[in-house]
Structures are given as structure tokens and as C-alpha cells.
């Protein structure tokens, strides 16, 4: 892989890890607005053109798969 491909993969991987972590926090603290905002921001990223530029993955499918692991 070329360096920019490695960077793109690392960005997607970190976003997925962050999303998994924030979903758990939202489950434990459903009324915490900071967690809800963080979740919304990550979901926007997975649906964005920026995500599509970085990856050939389907962001909706990725989010769904992460949600199933919680």
C-alpha cells in the first residue's frame, strides 16, 4: 500500500473504533448529550463524501456491523 492509502485506512479504522466506543457510552448513559453529539458526528462522517473519498466501504453497512457487535 502507498502511504496515503495507509493513512486513509488508519483514519477509517480510528473512526470505527471511536464509533464502537461511543455507542457503548451511549448505551450506558443514554441521556448524556455529549455522547449523543459525538455519535451524530461520527455517523455524519460515515455518510459523508469525505468517507467515500477515503474508502470504498459503504459507511451505512460499516455502522450497522459495528452496532451489531455492541
Can you put this structure into words, describing what you see?
It is a single chain. By secondary structure, the chain is an all-alpha fold. It has one domain (16-68). The chain has helices at residues 3-28, 33-46, 49-54, 59-68. The relative contact order is 0.16.
Topology:
Layout: H1 3-28, H2 33-46, H3 49-54, H4 59-68
Helix pairs in contact: 1-2, 1-4
Summarize the structure.
The chain has 70 residues and is mainly alpha-helical. It has helices spanning 3-28, 33-46, 49-54, 59-68.
List keywords for this structure.
70 residues; mainly alpha; 4 helices
Distance between the termini: 31 Å
Which quaternary structure do these chains form? Answer: single chain
- Low-confidence runs of at least 5 consecutive residues: none
Average per-residue pLDDT, rounded, comes to 97
Number of helices: 4
Fraction of residues in helices?
over 70%
Run of helices and strands: HHHH
Beta content: under 5%
Main sheet characteristics: none
Number of domains: 1
Radius of gyration: 13 Å
Number of β-strand runs: 0
Inertia-based shape: elongated
